[in-house]
TrEMBL record:
Its cofactor is Mo-bis(molybdopterin guanine dinucleotide); [4Fe-4S] cluster. One of its GO terms (cellular component) is membrane. Belongs to the prokaryotic molybdopterin-containing oxidoreductase family. Residues 3-59 form the 4Fe-4S Mo/W bis-MGD-type domain. This is Formate dehydrogenase subunit alpha. One of its GO terms (molecular function) is 4 iron, 4 sulfur cluster binding. PROSITE patterns: 4FE4S_MOW_BIS_MGD, MOLYBDOPTERIN_PROK_1, MOLYBDOPTERIN_PROK_2. NCBIfam families: Fdh-alpha (TIGR01591). SMART domains: Molybdop_Fe4S4 (SM00926). One of its GO terms (biological process) is respiratory electron transport chain. Gene3D superfamilies: 2.40.40.20, 3.40.50.740, ADC-like domains, Dimethylsulfoxide Reductase, domain 2. Keywords: 4Fe-4S, Iron, Iron-sulfur, Metal-binding, Molybdenum, Oxidoreductase. InterPro entries: Asp_de-COase-like_dom_sf, CT_Formate-Dh_H, Formate_Dh-H_N, Formate_DH_asu, MoPterin_dinucl-bd_dom, Mopterin_OxRdtase, Mopterin_OxRdtase_4Fe-4S_dom, Mopterin_OxRdtase_prok_CS.
């Protein structure tokens, strides 16, 4: 038997753990530790452990499929390319929209971005970062001039106080959770703020439970207490921050006194005071957040408030400090860096900047030009345009996303996608979204390709090919390049290897400029920015100065606003949504992993025992949950870990899809939907 071990990077979360894939007789069949990665030092979480199980599933997509009379029929690549090329050429550029993928490599994302803007010449390209950290990108860029996690994962273990707000780190970034545990062992205080007492909360020294949607009030209250007690970092505020007086005027308002914020949030005033003291007096304090902060109509406000607190306490540009926005998908950082966003090319170079537009137009050399120098539509806006303005968008090309389960208000999404004239989906499995497509293209998965991905700490790491692709599946960038060639752009897509794609990309991307495949092979890889081949990379941002042109950090005065939809008589409960450790988003991979699926085979709705009792509902019973958007049946989980008046659902399960209920209402700047708060009612199912 031929056995080999191939080192690669985990395809699930943004932590960026490395492991070895075990390959027997040419087939991936296990995961073994790779000890030299400083990120995870040989450890992995359950998803990493079983990251091989879906790879050789018999239901992988293996041939192109074309829908004829409502049924998919197998086709050759040439037939599929010819049809797509002919269709896409029949539309005006801005009638086409592309969705890129945080699951695929930087090379794949760069290829689709170039295809969209260069070959199709459309302005409309986006991806799931919109549903995730769009508010981080906007909020942290406004505060610091750069929208990324400021410190490194390893740095968290060195902190003296870790404040986790809206991140279930132990389940969603388990190997970052390990760094929190290490900080705690080193004597750090751990503070956790979340509507639910999660696995992460159970490790905390101080747990603050509150109603979803009160974050700004809580953060303002903590800042007010810090200033009243003189715990702010006067030197940092004096020398490095703008806007302190305006911020102070807001956070010192009576509205944000602990006793008043207790009323808004439900957190006892004493706990708010303790949190302020621990954060304000610690030698260093790291703030960690994720979707509990970002997925709100006030997502950008929430993010700016976390930045305010960290600047106020001098925890920016410092070891053990930082605003650690934990990016979710394995390569969501990279997909953003690659410009799979409607407003930027790679490295956040603005589409509307004429010099940038010229740089890419000249660099790519499309004889008939590229997209206009104008911003495009966000994915959430694309769905609204499709339903509200029929005919404006006619075709969609979707690589590695499953909006039919992951976008808010699925009934609306279905209506939107069904109104398209033509839709292509490029995936590794037949998903709920692919089922609606006109053409489905089979892609390789992480285990079948070389490439790079960028983790939450801006660390750019390698994937290595461990086995051949199933059937006729092809590399994502290769599919795009071959399709582009059919459309007459062979010269612009000349690549033979992933490394050639990467080298073209870095020539146009300052923060990746000094990275080469050779340098990225090292176990510790490289953190961007890394502008030259001599540059060592940058694990911690904003040391000495922020990334704004004048080097200053900007504090923003922010007032608290309630969520767009609050409970009323008809819909008396708040619904918040999220994840569990065993499953990944729409379940396309984890529900095809035997061991993970066996742990948690279906979804649930969490109810506080008092709410359950009032409704006459017992643990495990199938109940009906309804919002203004729709109704689902789902098993009840009665638990005192959730606050009274609040319910929670994971969104992984198609048979009880949380996103039937969620509200497609958006943050006005980031256009991120309010996944973390809407109003629902829960009822007993009456026997017929
Ligand atoms: N196992 C697993 N891991 C994952 C993923 C997965 O699907 N499965 N997905 C990955 C991705 S893409 C992402 S973005 C991350 C997300 O990682 P997290 O953000 O950690 O995950 P969530 O469960 O969405 O939400 C985090 C917490 O926010 C809380 N919350 C709800 N409402 C509020 C609120 O109003 N304020 C605050 N402060 N908190 C609130 C929830 O109770 C929940 O505990 O996880 C990544 N890791
Ligand atoms: N209610 C609610 N909804 C949410 C959230 C929430 O907290 N609550 N969170 C939101 C967040 S943060 C996120 S990030 C989104 C995620 O939303 P999506 O990105 O739509 O979810 P995934 O299931 O990760 O979909 C990725 C797709 O890529 C495919 N894929 C995997 N690897 C490859 C590959 O190499 N090539 C190709 N071509 N395809 C591949 C998978 O099979 C899958 O179909 O969901 C959002 N939706
Ligand atoms: S923590 Fe994230 S990157 Fe690490 S093994 Fe688990 S899912 Fe993979
Ligand atoms: Mo995400």
């Amino acid at each position: 038997m031929d056995v080999k071990y191939v080192r690669t990077t985990c395809p699930y979360c943004g932590t960026g753990c490395s492991f070895n894939l075990v390959v027997k007789d040419g087939k991936v069949c296990g995961v073994q530790p790779y000890h030299r990665s400083p990120v995870n030092e040989g450890k992995v979480c359950p998803k990493g452990t079983y990251a091989w199980e879906f790879v050789n599933r018999e239901d992988r997509l293996t041939t192109p499929l074309i829908k004829k009379d409502g049924e998919f029929v197998e086709a050759t690549w040439d037939e599929a390319y010819d049809l797509i090329a002919q269709k896409l050429k029949s539309y005006k550029p801005d009638e086409i929209a592309c969705l890129s993928s945080a699951r695929t490599s930087n090379e794949d994302n760069y290829a689709l971005m170039k295809f969209a803007r260069g070959a199709l010449k459309t302005r409309h390209i986006d991806h799931c970062a919109r549903l995730c950290h769009a508010s981080t990108v906007a909020g942290l860029a406004a505060s610091f001039g750069s929208g990324a996690m400021t410190n490194s994962i390893l740095d968290i273990a060195e902190s003296r106080c870790v404040f986790i707000i809206g991140s279930n780190t132990f389940e969603q970034h388990p190997l970052i959770g390990r760094k929190i545990a290490q900080a705690k062992m080193n004597g750090a205080k751990i503070i956790y703020a979340d509507p639910r007492l999660t696995a992460t909360g159970k490790q905390a020294d101080l747990y603050m439970q509150f109603r979803s949607g009160s974050d700004v009030a809580i953060l303002n209250c903590i800042m007010g207490e810090i200033i009243r007690n003189g715990w702010e970092d006067k030197e940092w505020v004096q020398n490095r921050a703008k806007g302190y007086e305006e911020l102070k005027a807001v956070v010192l308002k009576d509205d944000y006194l602990p006793e008043n914020v207790e009323k808004i949030s439900g957190i006892p005033a004493e706990q708010l005071k303790t949190a302020a003291e621990w954060i304000g007096t610690a030698e260093s304090s790291a703030l960690l957040y994720s979707m509990g902060i970002t997925q709100h109509t006030v997502g950008v406000d929430n993010v700016k408030s976390t930045a305010n607190l960290q600047m106020l306490t001098g925890n920016i540009g410092k070891r053990g400090g930082g605003v650690n926005a934990l990016r979710g998908q394995n390569n969501v950082q990279g997909a953003c860096d690659m410009g799979a966003l409607p407003v930027v090319f790679t490295a956040y170079q603005k589409v509307i900047d004429p010099a940038v537009h010229k740089k890419f137009a000249d660099g790519w050399g499309f004889p008939d030009g590229i997209c206009e120098s104008k911003n495009g539509y966000e994915v959430t806006v694309m769905m609204d345009v499709l339903t509200d303005n029929p005919g404006e968008l006619k075709a969609m090309y979707i690589m590695g996303e499953n909006p039919m389960l992951s976008d808010p208000d699925i009934t609306h999404v279905e209506h939107a996608l069904k109104s398209l004239d033509f839709m292509v989906v490029q995936d590794i499995f037949m998903t709920e979204t692919a089922a609606l497509a006109d053409v489905v293209l089979p892609a390789t998965c992480y285990a079948e390709k070389d490439g790079t991905q960028t983790s939450t700490e801006r660390r750019v790491q390698m994937w290595h090919k461990a086995q051949e692709a199933p059937g006729q599946a092809k590399l994502d960038w290769q599919i795009i390049a071959e399709l582009a060639a059919k459309m007459g752009y062979a010269d612009q897509f000349p690549w033979q290897t992933s490394e050639e794609v990467f080298n073209e990309m870095r020539s146009l991307t300052p923060s990746y400029g000094g990275m080469t495949y050779e340098r990225l092979e090292k176990p510790e890889a490289l953190h961007w920015p890394c502008p030259t081949e001599e540059h060592p990379g940058t694990p911690i941002l904003h040391i000495g100065k922020c990334s704004h042109p004048d080097g200053m950090g900007v504090m923003h005065p922010i007032e608290w606003k309630p969520p767009a939809e609050v409970p009323d008589e008809e819909y008396p409960l708040v619904l918040t949504t999220g994840r569990c450790i065993w499953h990944w988003h729409t379940g396309s991979m984890t529900r095809r992993s035997e061991h993970l699926d066996a742990e948690v085979p279906t979804g649930w709705i969490e109810l506080n025992p008092e709410d359950a009792k009032a409704l006459g509902i017992v643990d495990g019973e199938m109940v009906k949950a309804t919002s203004r958007r729709g109704t689902i049946n789902v098993p009840a989980k009665v638990t005192k870990d959730i606050m009274k008046g609040v319910t929670f659902m994971p969104f992984h399960f198609a048979e009880c899809a949380a996103n039937v209920l969620t509200n497609n209402v958006l943050d006005p700047i980031a256009k991120i939907p309010e996944f973390k708060a809407c109003a629902v009612k829960v009822e007993k199912i009456q026997e017929a």
